[in-house]
Write a structure and sequence with these properties.
The chain is mainly alpha-helical. Helices cover 77% and strands 1% of the residues. It has a two-stranded antiparallel sheet with strand order 1-2.
Length: 429
């Protein structure tokens, strides 16, 4: 591709999105650039504090459990309080709880604060996704979610590289830097992102009162998507929990695993935007079917890998699945969500990934300890096949266009936090 073609492709990928999206995107990037703690928490607890690997696993599980619990609560807050207040509460709480975690010494205190960090850090996700759905036109949403996913991975790649250097100097510095950068995200939200929740009529308020968590649970098609997203997430999680253990048992070093898994981040950063241009207006049913199969059988190929290069090739396969699946699935969730219930629906969807993060280590442990790595990779293929069949059946009648009740996206502008009636002001786009 020539430089001119590349510039044109980049311009087309980022054009047409509202300024509010880019402030939200910036907040996401800054947040992920400062995500040091998750990268070296296990090393911090075992090497610096001298705790056992079992205790480190317990802390990680509590951190994940906090995320599971907060997913639903944050979804409700997003719909009732608004996107902006939820983001401010979540990011401010994350900033202070992460900083506090660096000063904890007693095992029970570390575990308790880690649980709070998990709750706070996961609470912003439903609000971010709901706000993007509010401010971006329906035809641009897959592209917007893709750009946001790209920012997450770019930030994580940089923070992962920097975490090691910071840890060599001071683990406490890592906690404080992450707290400061998360607080910077809250400041960006406070200064640049007014409330985006669509203005409500009296009829909308009555409808909103009827959209509770029970409504979400009774929505058969949506809960089917949530269940399928859990299966796909269960596969992708093996890149972080099953793959390193399997490679270690096969005689490979941590550095070998680092080289193989680095391909994941590099490919996402390099290919997320061009791949999104290719898939943006294609049938989400087939995109999810194909990505599920690529994920399952990409991990299945790991059973035949005998070198670092071969492992890296398998990572390429399931990374392509991840690039296609992430923005497509998030866009489908938005299309299936009622306008004034987006927070609750996004919270339920977020929870599926949080639960997968808890279940995946147990799954890989059982297979690797009792059956062998080949059975784990075979199970990934089976799960991917089931997910693909599920998407094919569930989405055959998915509307091709947004529902008629979908309001025109709003253009937000800086305004006072609230008006006399307590509702944030919105200017229709």
């Amino acid at each position: 591709m020539s430089p001119a073609s590349l510039r044109r492709a980049v311009r087309e990928s980022v054009s047409g999105l509202p300024p509010a999206f880019w402030w939200l995107w910036t907040s996401t990037l800054v947040n992920r650039l400062g995500a040091f703690v998750a990268t070296y928490m296990a090393l911090y607890l075992t090497l610096d504090r001298g705790y056992s690997a079992s205790y480190a696993g317990l802390v990680a599980a509590l951190h994940g459990l906090g995320g599971v619990i907060s997913s639903l609560g944050a979804g409700v807050m997003t719909d009732r309080l608004g996107r902006r207040p939820t983001l401010l509460i979540a990011q401010t709480s994350t900033a202070f709880s992460v900083a506090l975690l660096g000063f904890m010494h007693h095992p029970a205190a570390i575990a308790a604060v880690a649980f709070l960090v998990g709750m706070a850090s996961n609470a912003s996700r439903p609000a971010v996704q709901a706000m993007m759905a509010d401010i971006v036109r329906p035809e641009d949403r897959v592209r917007a979610f893709s750009l946001n996913y790209w920012a997450i991975n770019l930030g994580f790649a940089v923070s992962s590289a920097g975490a090691g250097f910071i840890a060599e100097v001071s683990y406490l510095a890592g906690f404080l830097i992450e707290g400061a950068m998360t607080l910077a995200c809250a400041i960006v939200v406070f200064l640049k992102l007014p409330e985006s929740r669509p203005a409500r009529t009296a009829g909308d308020r009555a409808e909103d009162d009827e959209v509770g968590l029970g409504t979400v649970l009774r929505d058969g098609r949506f809960m089917g998507v949530v269940g399928l997203s859990f299966l796909v997430a269960l596969i992708f999680q093996q890149g972080a929990v099953g793959l390193p253990v399997a490679m270690g048992e096969a005689g490979f070093t941590p550095a070998d695993y680092g080289l193989a898994i680095a391909v994941n981040g590099v490919l996402i950063v390099a290919l997320q935007i061009p791949v999104t241009r290719f898939i943006e207006h294609r049938d989400p049913q087939w995109l999810l079917v194909v990505s599920s199969l690529l994920a399952g059988y990409g991990f299945a190929l790991t059973a035949f890998a005998g070198s670092v290069a071969a492992f890296a090739l398998t990572v390429c396969v399931w990374t392509l699945a991840e690039i296609v699946n992430a923005p497509t699935q998030t866009g489908v969730v938005v299309r299936l969500s009622p306008v004034h219930g987006r927070g609750r629906y996004q919270g339920m969807y977020t929870m599926s990934w949080s639960v997968a993060a808890l279940v995946a280590p147990l799954m890989s442990g059982v297979f690797l300890d009792h059956l062998g790595a080949e059975w784990l990779w075979g199970a990934c293929a089976l799960i991917g096949t089931i997910a693909a069949a599920g998407y094919w059946l569930l989405m055959r009648s998915l509307p091709r266009e947004p529902a008629p009740a979908e309001p025109k996206p709003v253009a937000v502008r800086p305004l006072p936090d609230t008006l006399p009636d307590g509702e944030p002001s919105i200017t229709p786009g």
